[in-house]
């Protein structure tokens, strides 16, 4: 019997961090992050019928996420914006006011990707970073509900009424959050609405989902699951494999290492797991059916792609849905072109509602 699938939230990726290529490692000026280029990706994703789009954040790469999202608000009408926030960059009450203003501009279409990251120039070990992250999430959620805060923690000591915009426009903001370490899983269980995972084998994904669910249940909370993955889809499987190998053909080992090392999270537990996944793959880079790790040779973070023809890609996504994942953040290189291709070839096969 085919499992009854819950409706899926299908999101695309806005390349705000200079992460757009026709071939990885080959920089083209027309694909570098700019307001015009990233605007075009967002507008194409909305035109194609995506539910949401992740707007990532990085200090040294690309453009400012919140400013960009604000400029896109009046240009979009139906799609949510998933705005990445790096915890610690902004005092939490100001962050709550900023996000509430953005949500009002978007007519309620704001979702927030919480990033637990070291700040530029800061060295903070993982347990401290995640404890700070949970404090930020707790304070911001409370204020955005329009409620006063009386919080006395390790990093923040705040007694404050919510700003007027939050009081008059209360919202229970949806926090999307990812991280593989024990500390990250605890934060997700305590404060996230959607736990985001990078690619892994179906066996490992099921283990992670079970563990995070149990942690949330112990806190009387329920958590949804999301999956962040690249896509290489073509009319035939052979064409998809050819496109995948073309994507990394210009990257040698030295250049790939340089690209991966420039990320602020290059040494995180999740990034290390992506490297392990790549090292455990077969000679052609596949670690299981249609999951190809070759893309991780030239980027940090999410390091695998679903590769295949439209039916194979849709089947793989639906396998994840059957496992209980109902949110997907997908991407392809170049992002605007592959957004259209995925929407034409795969979206009609998913039956999201």
Describe the structure concisely for a colleague:
The chain has 353 residues and is α/β, with parallel strands linked by helices. It has helices at 35-48, 65-72, 92-105, 126-144, 164-168, 182-191, 202-218, 237-247, 253-261, 269-279, 310-323, 335-345, 347-350; strands spanning 9-13, 52-55, 80-86, 110-115, 149-152, 157-160, 175-178, 194-197, 224-233, 286-288, 291-292, 305-308, 327-331.
Helix content: 40-55%
Number of continuous helical runs: 13
The neighbouring-strand order within the major sheet is: 1-2-3-4-7-8-9-13
The biggest beta sheet reads:
8 strands, parallel, barrel
Measured between the Cα atoms of the first and last residue, the distance is: 19 Å
Structural class, by secondary structure, is alpha/beta
Mean pLDDT: 91
Kindly provide the radius of gyration, computed on alpha-carbon positions and rounded to a whole number of angstroms. 20 Å
Shape: globular
Report the CATH C-level class: Alpha Beta
N-to-C series of helices and strands? EHEHEHEHEEHEHEHEHHHEEEHEHH
> What is the number of beta strands?
13
How much of the polypeptide forms β-strand, as a percent range? 15-25%
Residue runs with pLDDT of under 50 for 5 or more positions? none
By CATH, the superfamily comes out as Luciferase-like domain
Q: Identify the CATH architecture.
A: Alpha-Beta Barrel
CATH topology: TIM Barrel
Count of structural domains? 1
